[in-house]
Amino acid sequence: MAIFTPKPLAKSCPLEDPAGDYKTARRAEQYRFSKKAVYFPAFPGTQYLSFASLTRALTRNTSLPLTGCCGKALPVTRLRLYYDGGEFYQDFTFEKLAGANEVLDTIAAARPDLSVEREERAQSAI
Known about the structure:
This protein is α+β, with helices and mostly antiparallel strands and 126 residues long. 16% of the residues lie in helices and 40% in strands. It has helices at 18-23, 97-110; strands at 7-8, 26-28, 31-33, 37-41, 46-50, 54-65, 73-83, 88-94, 115-117. The strands form 2 sheets. Strands 1-5-4-3-2 form a 5-stranded mixed β-sheet. The chain has a 4-stranded mixed β-sheet with strand order 8-7-6-9, covered by helices on one side. The chain starts with 6 loop residues before the first strand and ends in a 9-residue tail after the last strand.
């Protein structure tokens, strides 16, 4: 449960009742998402990005380096959401492609006019 009322990341399209919407949100790894927005931890409290403010959404397989510039890397999936006319974006990192696609499916259902790009192949072990 959020201690503070969730704050909008995109100032152009705030939700009318973000606290109520947050209560109905489902979990996808460390993020929560509803039919109207995706919520993520921020200081202080929680921020959200409403689907109405999005201009583009995409997933990509990538990796996070574990030991610096060279060496082993942790394979992850990045969900990138562009908002406010495409000027800004927010990245969400998922361990599994299925979690990112679950959020992307919800965005596509809420905004069928939105440009959505998917990474279809599963990540191979590095």
